[in-house]
Hints:
The structure holds two protein chains of two kinds.
Chain A: E1 2-6, H1 12-36, H2 41-49, H3 51-54, H4 59-86, H5 93-110, H6 119-145, H7 149-171, H8 205-223, H9 225-235, H10 237-243, H11 247-271, H12 285-295, H13 300-324, H14 328-345, H15 347-350, E2 351-355
Antiparallel strand pairs in A: 1-2
Chain B: E1 5-14, E2 17-27, E3 32-36, H1 43-50, E4 58-63, E5 66-67, H2 73-78, E6 81-84, H3 96-102, H4 110-123, H5 139-151, E7 157-161, H6 169-184, E8 188-193, H7 196-202, E9 205-210, E10 213-218, H8 225-233, E11 250-259, E12 269-277, E13 281-285, H9 292-300, E14 310-312, E15 315-316, H10 322-328, E16 330-333, H11 348-356, E17 363-364, E18 367-368, H12 370-383, H13 400-412, E19 418-422, H14 430-445, E20 449-453, H15 457-463, E21 466-471, E22 474-475, E23 479-480, H16 486-492
Parallel strand pairs in B: 3-8, 3-9, 6-7, 7-8, 13-20, 13-21, 16-19, 19-20
Antiparallel strand pairs in B: 1-2, 1-4, 4-5, 9-10, 11-12, 11-14, 14-15, 17-18, 21-22, 21-23
Helix pairs in contact in B: 11-12, 11-13, 12-13, 13-14
Amino acid sequence: xxxxxxxxxxxxxxxxxxxxxxxxxxxxxxxxxxxxxxxxxxxxxxxxxxxxxxxxxxxxxxxxxxxxxxxxxxxxxxxxxxxxxxxxxxxxxxxxxxxxxxxxxxxxxxxxxxxxxxxxxxxxxxxxxxxxxxxxxxxxxxxxxxxxxxxxxxxxxxxxxxxxxxxxxxxxxxxxxxxxxxxxxxxxxxxxxxxxxxxxxxxxxxxxxxxxxxxxxxxxxxxxxxxxxxxxxxxxxxxxxxxxxxxxxxxxxxxxxxxxxxxxxxxxxxxxxxxxxxxxxxxxxxxxxxxxxxxxxxxxxxxxxxxxxxxxxxxxxxxxxxxxxxxxxxxxxxxxxxxxxxxxxxxxxxxxxxxxxxxxx
Amino acid sequence: xxxxxxxxxxxxxxxxxxxxxxxxxxxxxxxxxxxxxxxxxxxxxxxxxxxxxxxxxxxxxxxxxxxxxxxxxxxxxxxxxxxxxxxxxxxxxxxxxxxxxxxxxxxxxxxxxxxxxxxxxxxxxxxxxxxxxxxxxxxxxxxxxxxxxxxxxxxxxxxxxxxxxxxxxxxxxxxxxxxxxxxxxxxxxxxxxxxxxxxxxxxxxxxxxxxxxxxxxxxxxxxxxxxxxxxxxxxxxxxxxxxxxxxxxxxxxxxxxxxxxxxxxxxxxxxxxxxxxxxxxxxxxxxxxxxxxxxxxxxxxxxxxxxxxxxxxxxxxxxxxxxxxxxxxxxxxxxxxxxxxxxxxxxxxxxxxxxxxxxxxxxxxxxxxxxxxxxxxxxxxxxxxxxxxxxxxxxxxxxxxxxxxxxxxxxxxxxxxxxxxxxxxxxxxxxxxxxxxxxxxxxxxxxxxxxxxxxxxxxxxxxxxxxxxxxxxxxxxxxxxxxxxxxxxxxxxxxxxxxxxxxx
Lengths: 361, 504
């Protein structure tokens, strides 16, 4: 019989080894699935993992997409990881992302068509503020009314979607858009544009912000007392109170920071890759970022890698659908396998397997 | 004559440790048999095997001559073996009869069961109202519920795991009376304890375990407590000592403090007043659940109160949080080591930061100085003989005694003005406990004031200058600990509940 035994210390080898093994197992299991669908498994896996970056035919288009898609995922996930480590569950990053985009876009459009150099920084500040304020609703309700932040933040996503629809069809609608829903295209105006900084890489200000966030989070968790308090509150709430950590302040701080980063991600998206506020502006980055945060084990470097991997499977998955005619459901199943193996093998870091024979009674 | 229970060569190994190594002994019918040993000597594993919770790797047991190998507690109970655990498994929101019915295979009607509970409780001098809510009962009364639950099965062997740790001296008397009566009727009792005097008054035979092996069998009445202690520990223990001294100025003062309970079954503090002087050790006795945790959290700053009700050297700090209080020199060590005094999954270095942050200057402008923090952890480990491979080890990997030495050492090395400790030696082996007590005395010797909250009366009498009792959230007037008798202490602790019904 197999028995799990808790390790006294998490294994350093498996913290790194488990994700690598998970990707390999996903390739094997996914390959079997693709073979059963009558596709060439080796080719399918090459298209998903290799071609988006290195094929001569596709890389020109898909390589920049990697950073464009990974940027907001990483930026949001870093913010979420602050709260998740403290046991504060912000599930509504999608809503904060929308509100941040609305605030930022509204700021930019208010000065349309000015090209003043302070407009874009102002939009970033407005994006941060929007996400922050939207996250303050669950934060203050939790601290002062003891409501559950999971429910409140999640439900506010749907309120934000309603706000988005009203903006796209009403108060931010393009006055020259002949009545179609959607705002002016912010990317078309140098004053409000979030441009590709290095041609052909997909690198825009938001991706840069994501990298800065990764470094900042890394410093906070490894060197700063705040990171220590966050971990303490998550691992042993009573010990945190004993240490003098103010639980209410931590809730406001963690939810505020994650909201602000999600809001900034929304602003960078609306001013760059998306270009404008539209009814279907949000595509689920806020929810996928939750997966990215956990996939990266709430560790900043892990989140960076997880965000890139997640973006890669999205792009590669689309490519495989296009090239091999693999059904979308099979691609989703493949992505599901990857998550399954990554999370299941996580157990190796904290437990070891023991083969144990039953004692004869 | 065949022994009631004969144990031959029982062995049980866990990864990395042999809990029981070739243990053999026998329990006779009607005998009160003590099982004696330090924490970690293998007492619990041994009784778990007898009660069917753990299967032995090797060895056999015989019950009245027949092979006995219970696969589960139910089988043990069917064979006439019952056990009262140290930690009760009772539902606070249910009444006594409902709690007992929950543990039965085929519970009778509530009215019949209540009748049987009354009968058994009268027969054995354990007064208990079957319809009272368990949440309203004292620890002693809860233990009676567990005992009566066992007695209703009419057991041949009753196992009791550290039964007196939660009782007042008077309640201990009642319990012993009951146990003697049971023994006289032919029930064998296996009595687990490390309290030597108790064993000398109650038990007929003692089996002593050390590091999983049986080291001796003796008749407790015929040997001294010191002799048994030596057998148990394997060496003689030094009694903490210090020189006589005059108490100094008042350092900590609590005045008219009342705090209502945070939860329905918590304890409210009622009009608590105390003061401790420099160089003084104040012992606060009392059975667990009488407000000890609440008192500690008021002193540590986890529960803020009116500013003026707690003063340190005349500075009102009742409204301050834990970190501000530490800055002024009021340090605390809570009872629960894992999860309260220390974070289980964090390393010792990280746990050193938990309270040492400000006072040891481990943080500057928000950034943690990890090399200093590691140095502080190493200093604690070296100074307090914490057995661990190094400061990078997670707190949960340490044994209870070692972690306790670390936690107490962490506060002492911060040079407190006043140190408050709750149950400093709970679950700690005898030599570590002696080291901790000595460290507390040395601290007081150095001019600090020390408050020790403990259930262990022997410990309090050993180290305290003044003794007071916490009973249902009320603190008695402190009295000099020297010359205080167990009888008086018992009355300070609230005596026994329903004493008058006990037949003597």
